Amino acid sequence: MEQKIRCTIHKFHAAISLVATTILRISSTMTTSCFAGSIFLAAAGVTTAFTIRPPPILTTKHHVHSSSSLFSSTQAQGYLDTLSNKEADGTSTSNFWGAPRNEQEIIDFISEAVFNDVSHHDAASNALNDNVAPTIDQHLQRIEVISEEPPLVIVHGFLSTEHCDDIVNAVIGPEEASENSENAKNQLKRSTMGAKQDKSQQRTSSTAWLHPEHCPKPLDEFSARVSNLSGLPTENFENMQVVRYQPGQEFQIHTDHLDSFNDMDCGGRLATCLMYLNDSEDNVSEESSHNNDETFTGGETFFHEFDRAVSPRKGSALFWWNTIERPGSKGYDKNMFLNVDLKLRHAGLPVLSGEKWVCNKWMHPLPFPHGV
């Protein structure tokens, strides 16, 4: 009974958020600048008198490749081939995500985009605890489609556990700070949110930004796979953001794209790739948990629209589009105004114990200054 009450409260809170956002949109024609600064508050959570507790965790279901694939590897490769057809300004995109796809089409496309890459075999093999390069069938078992439309997928083994460790180790913690590193991008600082980079109790984690020189190979491989997955060129990516959550810290329900982001030279945040850099205790075997002091509890990524709480697994990546308009969709133009897709609202639930580490790659329709 208590669990049902907590879930009902969480959904009621999100419903308030949706109503508030809708009201803001109706009034946007009269007060556009006010709306741009306010939508995040509606999408990221309305202050209430009650506390949201984590919803129940749903068991992950891996989808296995079937012999009756609706979208053949040849067709999938055809979509990947469009990546090589650059436009004159270098902002070419794959059109795969521009039309609704079924589950099997998405699985086949991702298997080709992410895993059918010789340079990835060693890392993927490590993630499978095997000395032999994984087969395509093994790859397909690690792709989970939470939603076909709008697309929301989990790709397990997106990066090796060693590369995840390298990314965490490239971050400078407060205890390591010195006068020389005080202003370093890769030093952890209090997280901010919105176009004005404001601090807020809605987001209480710490963040650092990694540039290629901080961690070359892991960042290059991650960016290359995100590019293959999204169909967007790496020059359209922001630098990698690494986020640390300590006990009690969270990121309340929000969207990654804001209307105000359309004013940036690179355009709004089209898509997000979020990868977990360490394991939740839910994803560690009982035998290994006794020797692992880097796990944590809580900290699931909750998608209200799909009533799904994703339990973090080291090296697994979540991918979704933040906007209603996507490359390849009818009428899409890289210079157009992008509207947020509220179905992709999500929250980083509070960490209960230990430290949670994640990293983000945000993608834009146009080149991002000093990105990748």
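The above is record 1. Record 2 follows with the same two-line structure.
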Amino acid sequence: MTPPTADRDYWEERARRYGARAAGYSDAAMDAYEDRLRRAAINRLVGQGHGRSLLDAGCGSGRWSVRLAEAGWTVTGADISDTLLALAPRAPNVTYVQSAIQDLDLPSGNFDAVLSVTALQHITDDHTFEAAIENLTRMLRPGGLVAVLEYAPVRALGRTPAYMRARSRAQWIRAFTSRGYRRRAEAGVRFLGHGPYMLAVYLARRLRPSTNIEAPPPALNWLRAGCQAIDLTLARVPGITLAGDVRLLIFEKGAP
């Protein structure tokens, strides 16, 4: 596994290469496809802030920090990458802090909620991962919520890139319940739809090399919308939602 310094180097290089999109998928079509699914899950299970405080852990270029502030949260966005934070838009009720999650030095019990959107899965060292979860727990008030949207299949099979550590759904649940959290809710995010859509995108780019790869192919917007509708429906079906490989898990911190 790569050490934490390599994690930081990875994100700095990715930010220089892809700009603000570095915090999501490097492929603009895949990013556009899954962004709607993630947004629907977070809106449904995290909801409105009504002035409460939220830590966006691994905020990248501020996509979710800004959206959650618009939903009524007072947001602190923290990220390991100076370059990504420099690209983050300034917005009302959003404050940015540069720090790795495990090193973030903010007051204990400071937040009503914590959100991680595909950030914790990129902590590749097990000891650092455990330290990050401990630090998030310290900064969250008793009764507060942790929302983690991560790659969390029922079984983590096969090889993953060096910049990512694949953990199963059970491993994610254990990481929090072993610290006294209660699992409150979950929803699968990504199911079947991205397969046919991205295949169509690939074919469109091969057949028309002049296609702008920096944006989703407009001619396939109808297909993307239809495939997204399928995944959004599956996300609400009990039992089937477990089949998603990317999922949103909500935990409530217990009393001390």
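The chain has eight helices and seven strands.
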